[in-house]
UniProtKB/TrEMBL annotation:
Renumbered residue ranges of the record's region Disordered: 49-70
Domain B3/B4 tRNA-binding: 104-265
Organism: Bracon brevicornis
BP terms from Gene Ontology: phenylalanyl-tRNA aminoacylation
InterPro entries xref list: B3/B4_tRNA-bd (IPR005146), Phe-tRNA-ligase_IIc_bsu (IPR045060), Phe-tRNA_synthase-like_B3/B4 (IPR020825)
Name of the protein in question: B3/B4 tRNA-binding domain-containing protein
Domain of life: Eukaryota
GO MF annotation terms: phenylalanine-tRNA ligase activity; RNA binding
Length: 265
């Protein structure tokens, strides 16, 4: 399947059934009629078929960039990936990574942001920014997932990033009023997604429902535990409601996880 297919952003339905596909995962998504997930998978895993000659023609139409533009772009790229490593106090909490998660979703980067001042207006923009990051650089959570927590609501002590069977992970999902196991939450979200799809009469999922395929069928699910062994994050699906950010939050714990690359984090 050509990678250019993923660039058809307004495509609502895609029927690839009957085609001989070598990729078993893609074939499964196709047979489940999940257009959104198929396009996401194609974008992530299928190469584009654009020939060098065609690409050259496109470049001529656009016009060659000046050397100054190229130099500026290189400087911006360098600054984007520049890190200033600072020593932290020995008593600072750490994130322990277990061997179990290394075969599931191995990569994680965390940081703490202090002395935030939110208003109703800029808090809405803060939430919108997370959505834009997930849709953009995070490639619809295929490349990475960003989660933010109110640091002052996280239990004291070191955190643990691990992976467990879905039945052994228990959390109160974001904006939910009761606790679920990860297995029960997955099935609940899947049912909600199917009901919504039938109601809208479209093969397109919305919200966190569209990310379920990222963990479907996996024997272990990743999770982040606080010092009291409570699950505060279930990437790439949701955070826990117990550490939910609000307009009153002053200190923030940020986690970025990925199944593909430490660099993207």
């Amino acid at each position: 399947v050509p990678g250019e297919l993923a660039e058809c952003l307004k495509l609502k339905e895609l029927n690839l059934k009957g085609n001989k596909l070598n990729d078993n995962r893609l074939n499964k998504l196709v047979n489940q009629c999940r257009t959104k997930q198929v396009l996401d998978y194609v974008k992530q895993h299928c190469k584009k078929s654009t020939s060098p000659a065609t690409q050259s023609g496109k470049n001529k139409k656009k016009g060659s960039k000046t050397s100054e533009d190229d130099k500026l772009a290189e400087e911006v790229e360098a600054l984007t990936h520049q890190l200033q490593v600072m020593r932290v106090p020995d008593e600072s909490r750490v994130v322990k990574i277990t061997d179990h998660v290394k075969t599931v979703r191995a990569h994680i980067v965390c940081c703490i942001v202090r002395n935030l001042v939110f208003t109703e207006e800029n808090f809405k923009k803060f939430i919108q920014l997370q959505t834009k990051l997930h849709e953009g650089i995070c490639e619809k959570r295929n490349a990475a997932t960003l989660a933010t927590h109110d640091l002052d609501l996280i239990a004291p002590g070191d955190l643990t990033y691990t992976a467990k069977p879905p039945e052994e992970i228990k959390l109160r999902p974001l904006n939910r009023v009761k606790d679920y196991t990860a297995a029960a939450l997955f099935h609940r979200l899947q049912t909600e997604a199917d009901n919504l799809r039938r109601e809208k009469k479209r093969n397109v999922y919305s919200g966190i429902h569209k990310y379920l395929y990222l963990i479907e069928g996996k024997p272990l699910f990743p999770c982040l535990l606080d010092g009291a062994n409570q699950v505060i994050s279930f990437p790439p699906i949701t955070n826990s409601d117990i550490t939910k950010m609000s307009v009153n939050s002053r200190n923030m714990f940020v986690e970025v996880t990925s199944a593909t690359s430490q660099k993207i984090c």
